Amino acid sequence: MTLLTVRRDGEIAVVTLDNPPVNAISEAVRKGLFEMVGQLDADPEVRAVVLICAGRTFLAGADVREFGKPPVEPHLPQVVDRIEAARKPWVAAIHGAALGGGFEIAMGCRFRVAVETARVGLPEVTLGVIPGASGTVRTPRLAGVEAAVDLVTNGRPMPAGSALKVGLIDAVVSDLEGDAVAFARAALDAEMPMPVSKRPLEPMPEEFWQKARKAAVKAGHQAPLRALDSIRFATEHGFAAAMAHEREAFLDLRGSDEAAALRHVFFAERAAPKPSALKGIEPRPFKLVGVIGGGTMGAGIAAACREAGMEIILIERDEGAVARGLSNVAAIFDGAVKRGKLAEAGRAERIAGVRGSTDYAELAQADLVIEAVFEEIGVKRAVFAELGRVCRPDAVLATNTSYLDPRAIAEGLPHPERFIGLHFFSPAHIMKLLEIVPTPDTAPEVLATGFALARALNKMPVQAGICEGFIGNRILKRYRAEAEALVTQGVAISEIDAAMRGYGFRMGPFEAQDLGGLDIAFLQREGARAAGEDVPETLGDILVRAGRKGQKTGGGWYDYVEGDRAARPSPRAAELLSARITGEQDLPRPEIAAHLVRAMASEGAAILEEGIAERPEDIDLVEVHGYGFPRWKGGPMFASRG
Ligand code: T1G
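^ thats the input. predicted complex w/ (2S,3S)-3-hydroxy-2-methylbutanoyl-COA below
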């Protein structure tokens, strides 16, 4: 396969890059482009150049796989400068996504045209670095400081239409190659714009800087702030100085732990939906989906499946519950309309695809049914007994249980090979994590259906073996137990929460329990005790028995004042727990965080050892996508690696 091919359309040379799967800019691509400029400059018949890519997308950025290696010439900034300095003007013809170094190369071109569906972006901060080939220096010259800060510090790609408005591209076209050639030909007869690096740059207004800085600090890791700083530096210095400053920051960050952690998550996310064990196994179709239960979880699952284009039948126990369930689903789409994410017509179309019933017989033709009823074994078994009677033998039947043993739920179910656990996380239409829990009877194509459903819902699937809490809730239980152990050793609750916020979590373990309610885990422990298990009394038990269930009862680990969610240290909680607390201990917050992350990783090691999780990356994905583990720390297994 030839990396770069050239064809002539009259005086226009069309250079096509073909480096599957995403035209990442490898060393060979840099070298090829660098030499191509000289070759076409030397060709007297060529007057302009169109750069276009084969496959699904324009250049998707530097090849992230090369990040761990020493950079080799020609470096990307040199390639961009060389294209910009070419005697013949280059036109970037963009489809798919021009990202990172891909968009930097496009900015080295004299013009940029794109199809409507294309996106341009500088997502480097999502990989823990900043643009390293003039993204923070050319973008503000091309589109102004505000557009540059927006594009660079949040790392979100911009659709072609918006990019045209701010001047990042020159035209939106329909026939990409043909129109790009015509654009190049027309440009030859018009006044040539200045190369981007020569364009003037307005200073960054102080007020804008302060606002942008506050937002960048909120990101929690250093890359967004360094990117902002690099743009500001570019507004105060010449191009060459700004390029040197940017390069220094890029190389510094590229070797950082944050960048290594973000690359780890990047590749783990791309490996997750394609387990090798399912290669070549056809999933079953799932166009008509039943959801049993219209509460928060059921409504979220129904909305997520409807959003992915499935027809939904929502089953509840009586007409009132059906109405409430349907209104819970409608409320989710109303929210999307309010946030400007969904047009009114789209809302109506989505709601029209969700019908409610109390009659299980309506599920006779369902391809997939997902149960999301009360977390009690008897209730769940009754649901599956009914489903076993009414559903097709090949219909996939799934439980959303988060703690119960799926084997116990499926006991006695006819065609047990069609049963699987699909553990969604609330709110199910937002949280990306989906724990997929097969039983020993689950057929491979049913497991493949679980992964296909995750892809259809744009969720992050992680296969889990059967144990209490599968992967995520089992680690959560250990995390909470270790945090309580620190409290009994005299470490202040507020210090532990502050330590975990400082590490990058949005909330510490105690404030999170107060928000979610201490009684949920309490009921699980009580259920286990009732089943004869020896479950030692926890500090949380003491608080719940004293009526302290968290914010909803005005107090849990902390006290709360009506209408104010601020957590206040609680003398009452201290009094209730005093008998269990021996002494006082002042631990530095980083030590507290390291201790608790190590505890998560130790539970993760046991989970791997027992075969509950297949790979450490899966455990990191569960924690990052389901439990708020800071992405730029990579997850407990990565953070605790040797
Ligand atoms: N480098 C290497 N491999 C990459 C890659 C990249 N940049 N992007 C994707 N892949 C692989 C990915 O691992 C997967 O491999 C396959 O391509 C398909 O990916 C100097 C320093 C482009 C929007 O951050 O956002 O430029 O698993 O499943 O859903 O300033 O990939 O098949 O073996 O995601 O169609 C900046 C990251 C780099 C873009 C396509 N660029 N990629 O999405 O496919 S830093 C990025 C994406 C930089 C310069 C700086 C997406 C996509 P496999 P996929 P997709």
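The chain has a mean pLDDT of 95.
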